[in-house]
Structures are given as C-alpha cells and as structure tokens.
Design a protein that fits this description.
Blueprint (H helix, E strand, L loop, with lengths): L1 H35 L10 H21 L45 E14 L7 E4 L2 E8 L4 E11 L5 E15 L2 E9 L5 H4 L26 E10 L7 E8 L23 E8 L7 E12 L7 E13 L3 E13 L7 E12 L4 E11 L12 E12 L4 E12 L5 E11 L1
Antiparallel strand pairs: 1-2, 1-3, 1-17, 3-4, 4-5, 5-6, 6-7, 7-8, 8-9, 9-10, 10-11, 11-12, 12-13, 13-14, 14-15, 15-16, 16-17
Helix pairs in contact: 1-2
Length: 430
Amino acid sequence: MGWQVIAEGSARFRDAIGRSAVLAACLLALAQPATAQAPLIPVDDEAIPRLMERVEELERLVRELRQSPQPTATTPQPTATIQSPPPRPASPDEHGAHTGDLGSPDLRVSPLAEIHWFGDVGFRASDLAGDNSSFALGQLDFFLTSSLTEHLSVLSEVVFKPGTDNRYVVNAERLLLQYSPNPYLSLAAGRYHTAIGFYNTAYHHGSWFETAVTRPTIFAYRGGLIPIHDVGVMATGRIPSGSAGLHYVFELGNGQSSQSATAEATQNSVDENDGKAVNVGMFAKPEILPGLQVGFSAHRDRLRPANAAFDNQTTLAAHAVYQGEALEWLNEVIVVRSSRPTSGLNTVTSGAYTQVSRQFATVRPYFRYQYVDANVADVAFSALGHRHGPTVGLRRDLGKFAALKAQYERTIRRGLVDVNGFAGQLAFTF
C-alpha cells in the first residue's frame, strides 16, 4: 500500500514539473521584448520553428524524467504476490455467518446439504364392506444428504404422513451417520431400513421411485411380514470376488417392540429387553448380466410379549431381480418362523410375489401376483390369513419428475369374500 502511494505521488510530481517547464519557456519567449523595454522586433520566418524545437526538447526532457527509476532507498519494491488481509471472523448474529465462503471448503464453517422432496396424491376405492372411496394425501418425504468429509456423510429422511385420524404425524424414518473409506467397507449408525430381501432397501418412502401404486403385502408399512426399520449399527461392502460381484450386509439393532400393541414398532431410544436383533445377508451382482441381483438374508430377533412366552423370530428372505433399461422383473420370498418354549406353539408364516413390467416410451404397464399364508396361531400375522391375487397397472411418466399411476387389484381370501380394489396416484419429486 505504501509503495502504491509513493509511486502515485512521484508520477504527479513529474507531471507537474513537465507542465511548469513548458509554461515557463513560453512565457520567457513572449516576455523577452517587454523586459528589455525595446521596440517590438518583427518575427521572422525562422522564429516559430525554433520555438517549436525548444518546446519539443522540453517535452523530451519531461518524458525522460517520467521514465527514470526512483531511488531504491525511499521506494519499497512490490512483491510478486500481493497478500490480502485475513478475512474478519463473522459474528454469530451476522447474516450468512453459518455458510461462510461456499466456494471454498477450507473456509466453509458448515457443510452443504443436498435436499429432495417426494410426495404423492391419490384416490382409492374398493368393494370391501365399510371401505369408503377417498382422495388421499400420501407421504411427504423430506430427504437430505450431506458430506462432512471425504469419507464421512449424513443421511436423513423425515416423513410427514397421515394417520388413521386424518392428522399428519412426523417420523424420522432414517437418520444415519455413514463412514465409507473404501468399496469394501461402509459403516453406519442410526435408524435404517432393514436389509431383509430386496424391496425394502431398494424403495424407501418416496413413492415416485416405485413402479406400482402399492407395495407388495409382505413389505407393507403396516401389516407386512418384516420389520421395516431398526435402530443400531450396520456394515456393508463388496467382497473380493471378481466378476461375481458379491456384497455383504450385517446389521445389529434394537429389534421390534412387542410388549404393547400401541407402541411404536421401531424402538428408537429404549429397548424393552437386552436382546438385540441381528441381520446377515449376501447378494451378487454378476458383471456378465448387468441389472441382475440375487441374494438372501437371515434376520433373528427375540420378542417378549406381555403375559406371554418369549418368541425367537427368524426371518429368512431370498430374491432374484432384474432391472434393465426397459425390462423389470422382481421375485422375492419370505419365511418367518416363530419359536416358543413349547414346541407345539411354533408357527411358520410365508409370503412371496413376482412383479414384471416393461417401459414403452413414457408408459410402463406392470403385473404383480402375490401370495401370503399366515399361521392363524401367530398373533403377529394372523390378520393376514391366507390370501393371493393379481395386480394390474399402468404408470406414465410426466417428464422426469412426476408420474401418474393407475392399478386394479384383486385379493382372494380364504374363508372370506374376495376384494376388488382400484387405486390411482400422482407421485412427484421436487
């Protein structure tokens, strides 16, 4: 800064000297006859050229003065790079103090978050006695991810969903802190979707991702065969296996609640017993056929219902799915075995589905057939009974971020009347 001020002052000084010298020369040339008190001498033809030569000589001297270097003793030399003063720390009450310089990760004081919203509006009707046709707001899904470091990230999914009393409730469906140092190990802690089978981790709460309007019965949010969520720790990653593309899954969590029918199924903060639920799985994504995935998992949890014997619940799942550019084919089977102290009270409940669809431009017709056989002695699943039936539907993409779906579903129930239902849905993301 000091060098700049001195340089600017020197330039102004040289300019002033030059202008003064030229002006003085002109005045002397004009004032010489008056000083001598002599009569005016006529100007000859050579006087004006000589005067112009003097002016040009003076201008040349001025230019040389301007170009001459300044003394090093009084003029500091500028450095190659001018250092800027350090930024002043922002006070907490200043606007933008929590974002800092968004273009520089080193100066950023808080991480950036990537936010997505998912929602849907629908209509449903059936010929089941007491079931009224209704327009319905679906789940409003607030999905957020943020990278804290190169290998550490946060995933959050907060869902606003309507209850049976028509009021919206808010649930933290997923909240995970994830550490992924390499493709062979990814650790996470928090609330997650259990990796039982394929559908539960492939399709979360944003219905826009799903082909059909409804989920398969065995993966239903209410009344399905598996625990949708759990709270604990998990590890996933690749297994060195070449072109076989093997992956593993390990989960350790609180498990499901069983002592109260009105309690939240996922034990978010307090486990009702010291036993923990364990899920182990493996799947393959062979390179020879991109889009194919086959795998299995085993989940075990100990339930302690009130006024009843404990229940060792083992859930086995297997899947074989193919998702190509146009063709989709999903196949899954689940078997739940409940073991009790008295062997005569052991129960087995099973379910399966197959779903196939194909994309034609913006339209994707789909077909699903599902089957559930619930043991009537198993209190957890007895309401499902024995049921099966087809689902036929059509999905049309309205651009990249919205889809219109319509489907017909027929449910054949053992010992009960069959049910015919229709559902429509407008699903979107924004």
